[in-house]
Specification:
678 residues, mainly beta, six-stranded antiparallel beta sheet, six-stranded antiparallel β-barrel, 51 strands, disordered C terminus
Length: 678
């Protein structure tokens, strides 16, 4: 095994298989350790900001650098900058100007973390960077170390293989287009084996740039998206559809993302994306952002925030008042989109949306929706539509008999946030002819499994009741036991006679009312329960129910202008959270999967690695190469074993065997970047 060094003083690019690129005129082979180098010196003067015009820069030495040309260095804000110069002395570069077409470094010392400001500090690396390229050729070598400003560029169907490791120190590895990097070390027959690894060491100006072809559906913004916008306008919205996951991202992922929020909390001004200094705690320099698609119209894509509040329309009460299923989360000031209409909520209030109204005083009302199958539970017995008059009514739902406990539920309704109202009267026991004072009331959250059990002790349901024998009312939460237990006489309520019972569960609280008078409440236990609604009684009590109503605990939202919508339309929470520029990229991350067998066109990016054949994983950037069948930790699907970035300050990043690589980038102060762009 030989150690081979690249020539460091040529200007421009040389091919990896060009003998003139290597000292000794020997092209490296698979058994060689290869050093790809440029020339490195360091800044030897006090730190300084960007400048206009020309400047002389003092360094440790200019030995080996061309008499005029270009060098690269970096700022204390983690950005690599390009400097052109017209002359040298032994320790200075003269006539230095900033090449802002490479990176916009400018005089800007406020805020501290604006990436375009900052200083070049004393001791910063200075690189002269000749480039070794793998351009439409296939080469392989042993171990690779890129340092001192060295640059290895793999592109244009170039294939580059290495054995144990490819280490990037203070240099650059670039793989673009149809580049392939083969991890070739295959002597892995046990857990103790060492695999091929690509890693960036903790050097200043260590740069890994990976740009694979983007096979997924993508487009670009044709107009900027401001904070709060409910849609983006793109070059081509064809084949984007509702429920797609999309990513809006800056085209240059090697630009450092910085959150300035912690700084502005302390009043340090931050330059926002509109060029204004602000002290808002939300200011960010650059930020990618993910969304769900709420709708598409022409080339406008309407947005739903990722993990946002999406609710259904129940009804409208005017073109600017919409009743929605959610009862708690939307607030005045929130932005929503419904049917590709973006609106702002101006007011929110609770709303009881009527779901069922059983008027048992009417002859036509039946028990068709109720559980009455006594083969399923004996506790369903003795309920019937009766002509026994109560309070002047000719009909009522009546429970009669001598069984000590009975219940009945609406069988096709399972709800958590719900309100029930029941007009109930105790009644004389048919067998004894006496007026019974046993417990009776309404229940919610009833578990159907408890149909076979009494369940009135709240293990199977939440209920609110009056108990004449014990002179009390009770509110018991499912699986919680007795939460509220108070005297009826204290509340000034008489048990006998017709009363309206109300049990209301919403916003994390359960409340009980008699005749619309609030009596008691219980904070809903963590998680809450879904279940059925109904009636029950105990202690051989008989009762009649004149009417039973069920409401959804909903919200009425008032909008800043009218919308066109109908029941079951979806209301999405919307609003861009970070500024996005014209030209930013929009990529479909995944689609709503309806038929897992119909995803032949990978351009539409259907979710799930299992849905892709082994030869069509995207973006195609790496594959494993093995010469035997005994290699350890190698996936049979052709994915590579390991890619790792090591840094002292920031830990490490790894993608391992059996894991597909897509859109991976990792940013450090030493500019280590993984990316996959169109």
């Amino acid at each position: 095994m030989a150690t081979i060094y690249s020539v460091t003083n040529f200007v421009g690019t040389k091919s990896f298989d060009d003998t003139s690129a290597w000292t000794g005129a020997v092209v490296p082979g698979t058994a060689d350790t290869v050093y790809i180098r440029g020339i490195r010196t360091t800044i030897n003067m006090s730190s300084f900001p960007a400048w206009t015009g020309t400047k002389t820069i003092t360094v440790a030495s200019t030995s080996g650098f061309p008499f005029s040309g270009t060098f690269y260095t970096g700022t204390d804000r983690g950005q690599k900058v390009k400097i052109d110069y017209t002359g040298t002395t032994g320790t200075t570069f003269t006539g230095c100007t900033i090449d802002t077409s490479y990176f916009l470094w400018e005089v800007n010392n406020t805020p501290t973390y604006n990436i375009h400001g900052g200083n070049i500090f004393n001791g910063a690396y200075v690189h002269f960077t000749p480039i070794i390229e793998v351009n439409n050729i296939t080469v392989s070598s042993g171990n690779i170390i890129i340092e001192n400003g060295g640059y290895l560029k793999i592109h244009n169907n170039g294939v580059f293989g290495f054995q144990q490791y490819l280490a990037v120190r203070d240099g650059t590895l670039e793989a673009t287009g149809n580049a392939t990097i083969n991890f070739e070390y295959n002597n892995l027959v046990s857990n103790s084996g060492t695999s091929s690894k690509l890693y960036g060491e903790n050097y200043y100006l260590s740069q890994i740039l990976i740009e694979g072809n983007e096979n997924r559906l993508n487009t670009t913004l044709t107009a900027p998206a401001a904070v709060g916008d409910g849609k983006i306008t793109v070059a081509n919205a064809s084949n984007f559809q509702v429920n797609d996951y999309i990513l809006v991202k800056h085209p240059n992922l090697d630009i450092l993302r910085v959150d300035d929020g912690f700084r502005t909390t302390y009043g340090v001004p931050v330059l926002d994306d509109n060029g204004t200094y602000v002290t808002s705690s939300n200011s960010l320099t650059i930020m990618d952002e993910a969304f769900n698609v709420a709708g598409v119209s022409g080339n406008d894509i309407y947005l739903s925030r990722m993990n946002s509040i999406d609710v259904k329309v129940l009804a409208t009460t005017g073109n600017s008042n919409v009743i929605i299923t959610d009862s708690t989360r939307l607030q005045a000031g929130d932005k929503i989109v419904v049917n590709n209409q973006v609106r702002t909520i101006t007011n929110v209030q609770d709303y009881d949306y009527l779901l069922r109204d059983y008027d048992f005083t009417q002859a036509a009302t039946t028990l068709a929706d109720w559980t009455t199958d006594t083969n399923r539970s004996a506790y369903f017995a003795n309920f019937s539509k009766s002509s026994i008059p109560v309070s002047g009514s000719a009909y009522a739902l009546t429970q009669w008999g001598t069984t000590s406990y009975q219940h009945i539920f609406v069988k096709d309704m399972m709800r958590q946030e719900v309100k029930v109202e029941a007009w109930i009267s105790n009644y004389r026991n048919v067998s004894s002819g006496t007026s019974d004072g046993g417990e009776l009331g309404v229940c919610i959250h009833a578990d159907p499994v408890m149909d076979y059990d009494r369940g009135h002790d709240s293990f199977g349901r939440t209920y609110f009741s009056m108990d004449g024998d014990n002179n009390r009312f009770r509110l018991l939460q499912r699986a919680m036991g007795n939460d509220s237990n108070s005297r009826l006489t204290t509340a000034g309520i008489t048990f006998n006679g017709l009363h309206k019972y109300t049990l209301d569960c919403r916003k994390g609280e359960i409340k009980g009312y008699i005749d619309d008078e609030f009596l008691c409440s219980s904070v809903m236990r963590s998680g809450g329960y879904f279940g059925r609604v109904g009636l029950f009684c105990t202690a051989q009590n008989s009762f009649t129910c004149l009417r039973f109503k069920v409401y959804a605990a909903a919200q009425q939202i008032t909008l800043d202008s009218g919308v066109t919508c109908a029941a079951d339309d979806i209301v999405y929470e919307t609003g861009v959270e970070f500024f996005h520029r014209t030209g930013d990229i929009v990529v479909k991350q995944a689609s709503n999967v309806e038929d897992a067998l119909g995803h032949a066109n990978l351009a539409y990016c259907y979710g799930g690695a299992a849905e892709y054949r082994a030869d069509q994983v995207y973006p195609y950037m790496w594959n494993a190469k093995a010469n035997t069948t005994t290699d350890y930790n190698r996936s049979t699907d052709g994915s590579f074993y390991n890619i790792t970035v090591y840094t002292i300050l920031y830990g490490c990043f790894g993608v391992y065997c059996n894991t597909y690589l897509r859109n991976i980038w990792q940013q450090h102060i030493n500019i280590v970047t993984f990316r996959s762009l169109p």
